[in-house]
Amino acid sequence: MEFLVFLLKKHRRAIIITAIMSVISGASCSAVIALINYKLSGNAPDTGWLALLFALLIIVYYIFSACADYVLTTLSQQELYDLRVRFARHILSLPLKKTEEIGSSTFFASFTNDIENVVKTLRQLPTLFISGSMIIGASVYMFWLSGKLFAASAALLCIGLTGYMLLLNSSLLQPYWIRLREGWDDLCGHFNSLTGGIKELLLHRRRRETFLQQCIDKTCTDLREDAIRGKAIQNLFFRLGDVLYLIALGLILFWVGPFLHIDNKILTGYIVAGLFVVSPLASIINFGPNFGEASIALAKLRQLGLTFDGGGLPPEEGSMSTNVQADCAELIRLNNMEYHYPELTEDEAFTLGPIDLSIRQGETVFIIGGNGSGKTTLIKLLCGLYTPGAGRIFWQGEEVTDLNREAYRQLFSVVFAEFHLFDTLFGLEDVNLDQRAWEFIGKLQLDKKVKITNGKLSTIDLSHGQRKRLTLLVAYLEDRPVYIFDEWAADQDPLFKNVFYREILPELKAKGKTLLVITHDDRWYDQACRIIKLQDGLIVGNVRGKATQF
Fold first, then answer.
1. Contact criterion met (CB below 8 Å) for 388 and 457
2. Angle between helices 115-123 and 49-93 (to 10 degrees)
3. pLDDT tens digits, one per residue of 238-256
4. Does residue 171 register a pLDDT over 80?
5. For residue 550, which of 353, 538, 530 has the smallest C-alpha distance?
6. Among 85-94, 316-325, 390-399, whose mean pLDDT is lowest?
7. What is the helix (H) or strand (E) element at residue 178, kind and residue range?
8. DSSP for residue 397
9. Cβ atoms of residues 460 and 467 within 8 Å
10. What is the 3-state secondary structure (H, E, C) of 61-99?
11. Which residues fall within 8 angstroms of residue 3, CB to CB, at 6 or more apart?
12. FRET label pair with 330: which of 355, 458, 473, 530, CA 20 to 30 Å apart?
């Protein structure tokens, strides 16, 4: 597996040390069976040193196996940590449109299931090493007892294992593993719908029961049935491996041994040693199906773009000047910019643009238009969250490219209509942060409901409109050159609409901020320096001056 190759490259020393400790542990366990046979043969001297040697071998086995387990447990947990963090960073490195297409439920399914399944194989390596060394040690002892019996049992075992592998690779298990993994994606999606739509479900009994039956119950039933069938087939394979080996021992005991006229003492020792191999051999055989589950999990992670080559994050993108020139004629310029939604059918296809637009420093620009006219897409392009399909974007004359797009995004504070509110002011470092935040909280009239300590809000369990006021707090504290508000006032009462349009926007403008506001509130159009109207993805109006109507 690619992941195991990566681990061997990254942690070769730790895995080699673990392998050595596991081999010593397995060899000491194999020596125990040889010592037992030696004692039972009646040829051993009646002294206490055999008991001491027996005890020493047990101690060696215990210490080295425990150390091997500890090293690999530490390593696997470290890799689990690294993989989780890398996966989170990978999601943040993807284009916004890509993450929107994949969906949060798919990411959650991989984060909780696939990563664990991939790393699970690493945790099993000590057992694999110990079992392998035990088998090797016992095989050497069995060969020493009787080369003929060893050759016969090896031939029988090879025949059985060949049949076992043919069955295992016959695609009997693969469909169940795949359906289980796809079902987990579906279940995470349904759970996301359950938590997101809980109010609607609680208000409508029939909808609730239908949702539970057609989504939750059906998916869980399918998962249960596939798990039962898949695990049943897998366990049949496991037990078949045990039976095949026991059959081989039975043939040795009842047919091959007498046929070759093997002495009963040697035959007894050989069978005892063979029985000792049953458990470690089963551990190795059972390791195969686990790789099948890990392979499917790895394929899922690959589909999301996560790699295991050990590389870090991409190098930091280029910088961009944050110093805004006073009265900049073109703070932002869109030159023949277009954006397409390729996932829609041809009849429903939507294209924004081509758009040519210049925004001056310090302007207050209102963006209006009907639903589906392209307003939100435009602001996602303006702030660098979407990459134009055609055309170019300039910041103070400097073109925005893939090399500086990340730096360009840091010039914007955006409050989206569909927002997420963190309960901590992450990334804001200021010795007076709490004081500044508290003053603004008072302006938002939330000082009786929300406190702030060390940048952490005491609660975000508020009404939608009140939570949206707190998003305004976060944007205000970011203090960036350009502010974008996507229907911020739509959820506010008339009092706070007036505060927003008559107090907050003028205050930000007085600080030299450039303001882009998506709005339907025509009574406040007089606050705009310019009004831009979109329709069907095109600018159909661009009016400068204090307009009271459009």
1. no
2. 160
3. 676 667 777 777 888 888 8
4. no
5. 530
6. 316-325
7. helix 174-196
8. T
9. yes
10. HHHHHHHHHHHHHHHHHHHHHHHHHHHHHHHHHCCHHHH
11. 118, 121, 294, 298, 308
12. 473
pLDDT score of 517? 92
Q: Calculate the average pLDDT of the chain.
A: 78
pLDDT at 516 over 90: yes
Take residue 420 and report the two structure tokens written for it.
Answer: 């997420």
For residue 342, say if its preceding peptide bond is cis, omega within 30 degrees of 0: no
Taking the C-alpha atoms of residue 232 and residue 511, their distance in angstroms, rounded to an integer, is: 69
> Could you tell me the pLDDT band of residue 4, with boundaries at 50, 70 and 90?
low
Quote the DSSP letter at residue 492: S
Instruction: Centre a 10 Å sphere on the Cβ of residue 492 and count the other Cβ atoms it contains.
Output: 19
Query: Cβ distance 282 to 157 under 8 Å?
Result: no
**Host H or E run for residue 412:** strand 412-415
Tell me the average pLDDT across 526-550: 77
Among 450, 376, 470, which residue's Cα sits nearest to residue 418?
Answer: 376
User: 406-410 — which CB contacts under 8 Å span 24+ positions?
Assistant: 406/316, 406/317, 407/317, 407/318, 407/319, 407/320, 408/320, 408/384, 409/383, 409/384, 409/385, 410/322, 410/480
Q: pLDDT, tens digit, for every residue of 20-62?
A: 887 888 778 778 877 877 777 666 676 678 788 888 988 888 8
DSSP one-letter code for 519: -
Kindly state the tokens that stand for 336: 């023949």
Query: Which CATH architecture best describes the domain 332-544?
Result: 3-Layer(aba) Sandwich (3.40)
Q: What is the pLDDT of residues 207-236, one digit of tens each?
A: 778 878 888 888 888 888 887 877 777 777
8 Å CB contact between 75 and 14? yes
CA dist., res. 87 & res. 301, Å (int): 9
Locate the domains of the chain by residue range.
Answer: 2-303, 332-544
**Residue 42 has which token pair?**
């009646």
The CATH number of 2-303 is 1.20.1560.10
Measured between alpha carbons, how far is 496 from 499 in angstroms, rounded to an integer?
5
Which pLDDT band holds residue 118 (cuts at 50, 70, 90)?
confident
- 296-316 as b/e: b if 16+ CB within 10 A: bbbebbeebebebeeeeeeee
pTM: predicted TM-score of the whole model, two decimal places: 0.70
Q: Which two tokens stand for residue 1?
A: 């597996």
Question: Identity (one letter) of the amino acid at 401?
Answer: T
Q: How many CB atoms lie within 10 A of CB 202?
A: 10
CB-CB contact of 377 with 339 (8 Å): yes
Interstrand relation of 332-340 and 390-395 (parallel, antiparallel or unpaired): antiparallel
Q: How confident is the model at residue 485 (pLDDT cuts 50, 70, 90)?
A: very high
**Strand-pair category, 332-340 with 452-453:** unpaired
pLDDT tens digit sequence for 338-358: 888 765 555 567 888 788 888
